[in-house]
């Protein structure tokens, strides 16, 4: 087995460049994970292959074969047992023998080292960039201090979870921004997502003429993309693929951040299926969730955006890579911030187990086509909800701004709006994220728009600003695109209805923690933007 793998991998692990020199860099699509030896024989696992668009056809063939071997013919239980046993013996057991205070001190030192290394460890030509990056570090410190000061129980804050969450968020950012492998992986994901949603163009042409399709109307792109995505997701649920994928991803956060199984499932699923739907994955356990768990369910939904909405934002011109990276980075951030704000004081029912259960569905899906139809029908409901919410909140915002403008004229202020007022209130936030000084006020107004209206309106205003006579700087634009990527706005408080339906016996807790979780989700995205600001 070993010699066979080496003979296959060698042509691509060492290739000749145009100059004739041998490039020994490891390509992502042909790398292999050596898990060591078991009692009987060596175990070799190929990684999930990500072929580049320019990859040689033979590379793509080997990538496909490696995926087939990895997921069909090699028992993953053997590898999981081997990794778990050696991790426990070599890492966990010695680490937990260290006194708690010493472990926490080592954690804070490691976090400080990662943050400072991110800011000052990469050379830039301008000293001004270092100063802006330093402001981002200050922002993370201020945000965390604020949540510690307002914690509902400071003595019960799980500091290991908080520290690991912050370090993990920073490592994800470093992986994406500063490594070729990270860039290639996320570029592949983004390209795949865009290609998937662009396939709706043929359906649009069937319903509309070419001239209308070429106009890329927001409502047309949004409707077709949401219907397609939710129909496919429902089919994946029917086949069991979605449950398998979410459970595998949730296992990582469940193990490394010491949270309950239900929390890990919901937090991991939120960037995929969105807030509300992610809670449905643990429907039978909602009625027995603790206050801290419910708070995290809300926070994880508010701090991310679902894959359905990514196509909406990209149709407005927002880079898809920023959206996907922000949602992934916000998963550990939402866990850390939620556990600071509302620490666990009870014993969760799903502590120590990962279970996905959507409960009894009525009617049950008879086959794939029935699942496809059900997903598309549910998509119509989501489309209607998006259109209704957007129209209502835009109208209410216009009414409020009209009233403020009328009042402002009496005091000689002719452009008094809610965004302007909250822009000055939120003025420190862009500064703490590392936004250049000349862009602070317009970015603050965008943050205000996102909170009082929604992120769709904020992204639309951002794109309008970029085509105006005074656009944002590239740094400010990137940071802002990260900061706006989340469902944390006042209109999203309506998600309480979903949780109230799932757990009516927890209505008092749900209503009580909703606004607190909204603020936690809002600041999770700001912290994600600040961390992005450390690296650009």
TrEMBL record:
Q: Where is the Nucleoside transporter/FeoB GTPase Gate domain?
A: 220-316
Q: How far does the signal peptide extend, from start to end residue?
A: none
Question: Could you tell me where this protein is found in the cell?
Answer: Cell membrane
Q: What is this protein called?
A: H+/nucleoside cotransporter
Q: What membrane topology is given? A: Multi-pass membrane protein
Give the GO cellular component terms, alphabetically.
plasma membrane
Tell me which domain of life the UniProt entry assigns to the organism this sequence originates from. Answer: Eukaryota
């Amino acid at each position: 087995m070993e010699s066979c793998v080496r003979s296959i991998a060698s042509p691509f692990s060492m290739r000749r460049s145009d100059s004739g020199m041998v490039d020994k860099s490891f390509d992502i699509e042909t790398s292999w994970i050596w898990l060591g030896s078991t009692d009987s024989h060596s175990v070799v696992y190929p990684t999930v292959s990500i072929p580049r668009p320019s990859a040689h056809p033979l590379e793509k063939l080997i990538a496909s074969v490696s995926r087939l071997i990895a997921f069909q013919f090699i028992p993953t239980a053997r590898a999981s047992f081997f990794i778990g046993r050696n991790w426990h013996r070599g890492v966990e057991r010695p680490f937990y023998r260290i006194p708690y205070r010493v472990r926490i001190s080592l954690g804070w030192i490691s976090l400080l080292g990662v943050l400072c290394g991110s800011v000052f460890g990469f050379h830039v030509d301008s000293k001004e960039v270092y100063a802006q990056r330093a402001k981002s570090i200050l922002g993370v410190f201020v945000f965390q201090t604020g949540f510690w000061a307002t914690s509902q129980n400071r003595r019960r804050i799980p500091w290991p979870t908080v520290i690991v969450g912050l370090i993990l968020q920073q490592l994800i950012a470093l992986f994406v921004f500063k490594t070729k492998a990270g860039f290639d992986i996320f570029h592949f994901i983004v390209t795949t997502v865009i290609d998937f949603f662009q396939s709706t163009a043929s359906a649009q042409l069937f319903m509309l003429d070419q001239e209308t399709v070429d106009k890329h109307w927001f409502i047309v792109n949004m409707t077709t993309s949401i219907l397609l995505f939710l129909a496919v997701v429902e089919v994946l649920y029917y086949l069991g693929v979605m449950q398998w994928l979410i459970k595998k991803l949730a296992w990582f956060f469940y193990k490394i951040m010491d949270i309950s199984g239900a929390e890990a499932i919901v937090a991991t699923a939120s960037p995929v299926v969105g807030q509300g739907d992610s809670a449905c994955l643990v429907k039978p356990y909602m009625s027995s969730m603790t206050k801290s768990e419910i708070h995290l369910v809300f926070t994880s939904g508010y701090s991310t955006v679902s894959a359905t909405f990514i196509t909406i934002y990209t149709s407005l011109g927002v880079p898809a890579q920023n959206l996907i990276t922000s949602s992934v980075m916000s998963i550990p951030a939402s866990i850390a911030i939620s556990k600071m704000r509302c620490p666990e004081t009870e014993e969760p029912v799903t502590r120590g187990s990962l279970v996905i259960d959507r409960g009894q569905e009525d009617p049950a899906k008879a086959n794939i086509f029935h699942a496809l139809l059900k997903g598309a029908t549910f998509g119509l409901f989501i489309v209607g909800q998006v259109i209704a919410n957007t129209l209502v909140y835009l109208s209410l915002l216009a009414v409020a701004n009209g009233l403020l403008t009328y009042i402002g004229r009496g005091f000689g202020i002719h452009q008094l709006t809610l965004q302007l007022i909250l822009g000055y209130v939120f003025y420190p936030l862009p500064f703490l994220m590392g936004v250049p000084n000349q862009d602070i006020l317009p970015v603050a107004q965008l943050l205000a728009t996102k909170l009082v209206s929604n992120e769709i309106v904020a992204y639309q205003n951002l794109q309008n600003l970029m085509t105006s006579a005074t656009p944002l700087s590239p740094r400010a634009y990137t940071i802002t695109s990260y900061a706006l990527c989340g469902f944390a706005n006042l209109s999203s408080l309506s998600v309480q209805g979903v949780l109230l339906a799932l757990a009516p016996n927890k209505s008092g807790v749900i209503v009580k923690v909703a606004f607190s979780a909204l603020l936690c989700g809002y600041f999770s995205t700001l912290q994600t933007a600040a961390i992005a600001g450390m690296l650009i």
